[in-house]
Amino acid sequence: MRKNTIHPISLHRLQYGSDSYRQKAEGAYAIKLVLEIAKNGTVRTVVAESAPTPEVKSRIEQQARDWIFEPYLKDGVGVNVKLSTTVHLNVIRSR
User: What is the chain's mean pLDDT, rounded?
Assistant: First the structure.
């Protein structure tokens, strides 16, 4: 029996802008994301926990809403699911 898992279709690389450095957020971070994925595979809500600044948190949440997943099926029908995952982010100063 195949285990039903959540598979991404489209994950855009997170970009956090130059404002992050000015807010002294330079460094490596592991940020927990809690996503609510609709039965059609789109992201309904995102909460980024432990982001280094409110600016980085807002940008990550905004961009993760554009991610798309294969619908999660239960008995052959798409259902809403909640996914907790961690993303690793390196905030570096641009040259």
Answer: 81
